[in-house]
Task: inverse folding
């Protein structure tokens, strides 16, 4: 990493999505290697906290609340780099979201959100960055852009490695977290709560655990091989089986009590996970 350190030292690097996950780890690593980092994301408290951590280890950083769906926000992030440090060398368009769902669930609004953040947000970053890149403007030589890109790629590989490795090194902490999640889901499927609040969502569970939805899913996949959504469904099926075998409630009543708006959706999900219908499952106990 010696050569990389020399190339990174003093570079002004803006990072979107710097408030958690890969963006946060990359920002910290670049700052430790001597870059001046310009942090952007929507959660101000997380940016302030990261900025404090960078400064505590002698790094140099600044930050701005940046929603990448707003082109003006992204332009302002780049302007901040120029105002504070006199230029921008690199922009890492890292901010992104991933809403996982079956295509036939037709979560069209979530698809649009992903296009706005993951595609348009990145394009706004490219547009803002290209207009000020000193190295490109100065055109030091025809390889300089490739050199920079390959260095950043290397850093992202290291960050990803660090990000993935933590799921093993912090296993005990995360097993406690899974217990907390299961306890929350147990309470959440209490009939009185599910009727009012509907089915628990991935976002809701991760908010309860104070971690991002993406991070929770990565963590669960690494420890259990299953996503957050699958864990929610497993708990739901466990509760459904219990009520089908021990209560006299109708199947529609059980569906409503679990938080479904339509009993047909419950039937479909139950069958997907167990390969038999709720009615057939109940009959197997008679
Ligand atoms: N982790 C993986 O295995 C993996 C795999 C493939 C691709 N990726 C991509 O790599 C990137 C980082 O992933 P991650 O795992 O580090 O995710 P993460 O922990 O969920 O972090 C996403 C970051 O993006 C920011 N963000 C989300 N929506 C935003 C918006 N509208 N405007 C501005 N910032 C926004 C979030 O900050 P705020 O909420 O504070 O705005 C957060 O800092 C994402 O683009 C992700 O899709 C990750």
Result:
């Amino acid at each position: 990493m010696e050569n990389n350190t020399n190339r990174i030292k003093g570079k002004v690097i803006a990072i979107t999505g710097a408030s958690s996950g890969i963006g946060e780890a990359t920002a910290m690593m670049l700052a430790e290697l001597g870059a001046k980092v310009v942090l952007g994301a929507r959660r101000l408290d997380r940016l302030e906290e990261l900025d404090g951590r960078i400064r505590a280890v002698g790094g140099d950083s600044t930050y701005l609340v940046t929603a990448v769906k707003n082109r003006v926000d992204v332009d302002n992030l780049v302007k901040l780099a120029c105002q504070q440090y006199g230029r921008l060398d690199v922009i890492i368009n890292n901010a992104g979201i991933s809403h996982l769902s079956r295509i036939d669930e037709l979560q069209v609004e979530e698809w649009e959100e992903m296009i706005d953040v993951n595609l348009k947000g990145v394009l706004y970053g490219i547009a803002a960055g290209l207009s000020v890149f000193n190295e490109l403007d100065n055109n030091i030589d025809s390889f300089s852009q490739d050199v920079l890109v390959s260095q950043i790629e290397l850093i992202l590989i290291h960050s990803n490695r660090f990000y993935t490795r933590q799921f093993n090194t912090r296993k005990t902490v995360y097993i406690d977290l899974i217990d907390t999640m299961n306890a929350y889901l147990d309470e959440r499927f209490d009939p009185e709560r599910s009727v009012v609040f509907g089915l628990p969502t991935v976002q809701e569970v991760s908010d309860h655990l104070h971690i991002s939805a993406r991070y929770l899913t990565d963590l669960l996949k690494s420890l259990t091989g299953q996503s957050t959504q699958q864990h929610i469904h497993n708990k739901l099926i466990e509760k459904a089986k219990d009520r089908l075998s021990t209560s006299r409630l109708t199947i529609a009543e059980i569906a409503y009590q679990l938080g479904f708006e339509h009993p047909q959706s419950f039937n479909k999900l139950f069958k997907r996970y167990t390969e038999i219908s709720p009615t057939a499952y109940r009959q197997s106990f008679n």
Remarks:
- The longest helix spans residues 144-169.
- The mean pLDDT is 89.
